[in-house]
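name: query_chain
kind: protein
chains: 1
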Amino acid sequence: MPVCYHSPQRARSHHRRPPPRHQAPAGFWLLRLRLPGCDCSLLIPRRALAVNLMLILCLLLTAVASLALGEVRLTPADVWRALSGAGPALDQLVVRELRLHRVLAGIATGAAFALAGCLLQTLARNRLATPGIIGIDNAATAFAVASVVGTGIALAPSAMALVGAATAAALAFGLAGSSGTRGYRFIIAGVGIGAIAGALTQFMLSQVAIDDANAAFPWTVGSLNARQPQATVLLAAALLPGLLLALRLSRALQLVQVSDAVSIGLGINLIRVRRQTLALSVVLTGLAVAVAGPVGLVALLGPEVARTLCRHRSVPLLASALSGALIMLLADLAGRLLMAPLEIPVGIVTALIGSPYLLWMLLNPSFRSQP
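structure:
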């Protein structure tokens, strides 16, 4: 008579309890929303949440320091009273009329540059594929300068910068050929386009009157001084929906980092995702250049800081935007204080910080092109 023998390990497996349903993986929080006819759940990475909250706190502290420090030094209490409409008239003038708009412009432009950089790096699978390096910044600057020296209309730089950014992106994509946004051919094409746009900018400045050249000069180096409020409002109006669209694309962007065949097999419409990502990067870069000029290395530093802090394989879109805003504010504050009363434009400060890091990325043997 045959006898069936069961090993103790197999016998114990029959009595093992199944894992609880809807259990959050390690390192995540699970939020569930139960409504009539709807049972939704959301996984939140703990480290990413902590990093974003820390960046928001640092951004608020830096904004208060930017409002308080300068030739006229104020305390945080003085800043609060001035923002609320109380306190001496001089404090209100300094905070609300001179410094507040500058801080808001720095936050908006830094977030836009870094978010556009993170999107392009993810799309191209290359940490060097930022708007400044592939020529979008220089082309937007060239078109903005052309509008300033040609028309002098306040809102013209915003529209023309968008046209210039879109033109550079289209040319780089077309010259890259079948590789699209993949590989170094896309980057080399963008570098060439940026060099041509930079030469055109210098040529236009050399052919106009000195007053017109001085009016257009801030767009060539990057500055937050005396920015047009209309351009900042336009950027702020586009930044929030742009960030929401980027967050909506985050899952698809995470999947496009693998091979195209795997992404298509997982149900990702690659053409639509690439078009939306590239269009969003162009809009954010063009509007940011119209406000502050070509402060391109923020698009390189912001995503790098976000990846270092988050240490997660997902695309750190929100952390990149917050890091870019923080870097822009810190650079502007340093430019105002280091050689006071002389002011160093924020574009020069970020270039001094970002250029050595870019060289380190290129020379470091452990560097990898994938973000």
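note: The CA atoms of residues 247 and 317 lie 7 Å apart.
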